[in-house]
Description:
This protein is an alpha/beta fold and 336 residues long. Helices cover 35% and strands 13% of the residues.
Amino acid sequence: MYRRAKYFPHVVLEATSSCLCNCQHCMHQGTTYGEDLSLNEILTLFSQLVRLGTFRIDIAGGEPLLRSDIVEIVKKAVEMRFRVSFFTSGNAFSQEQIRKLSTIPNVDFHVSIHGIGEIHDRITQRQGSFQEAVEATRILIESGAEVTIDSVVLQQNVRHLSALADLVSEMGVAWRKSPLIMKSASQEYDIEGLRLSDKELFRYYTQYPEEQGLLGSKLQSLPCIELSEKVMCNAGIHTFLIRSDGEICPCSWFRLPMGNVKESSIRTILDHSPVSSRVRSLDGMVYEECRACEFMSGCKRCPGYAFAEEGSEQSIPREYCRQAKAIKSAITSRNS
């Protein structure tokens, strides 16, 4: 019997599955969903989220700027006292749209920039996408918005991070980067041709020691949330994903549909879906191989990543093992 979650402080809403970019590393490559939720359906969801104790909503995509009603969606979320994080490629915007969004209080922005110029354009597979992302970022900064640059670290850009660091510094914004990427549902790309090699991972974590904690759950930084020894993460317990077509999933990585909000309320889905029971009954301490692993201190096994990579949330995601080994090696090297 699993425990009933009383509150869900953090929720991710994918406003649309549409996007102008076709990023080489994107887990959504080749994935198509049903019709996007309407404005009225989203506003109804916001009312339900208030009752679920949600205080932070990540609005992502696809590219949320492609929705003509995105400003109204964000405004309504803030009016209902949600803190909003807005994730965008910075493409497909109008200056008026960006300026309106930037003036809404209690919203911070994450713009994806993976390199300078052609490096970024090759990764997104869209010519001119770098220039658009930089322009959108500068408009947000000029309007006084809180901005973070998000970068995925790949073989294609790892040797050029210093140039990207210079741009971030010149803009005066935060920088969040990660070499952890996941297979796409379509498998249209060679993921091993994108992931850093073992040597590149070691050099990366040596050069950027602040990134060594990336495998830990970001949700542990939220107030009032503590993970017990029997709970490996908060997916489906204190957070969940609302896909653009209304499907509820445990999280952005753990994309196992639990039910659709077009057919049932969020609370009904979370309380009664067989998938909810399956997710919440996961025991993070039953894996002897993990418990005895010398790299355990640098690893936070993610059931969503395991589901996507290995086909089962109860599997051990080997890419996490590789990342944890690189982190431990970098720490050992620095301390020796």
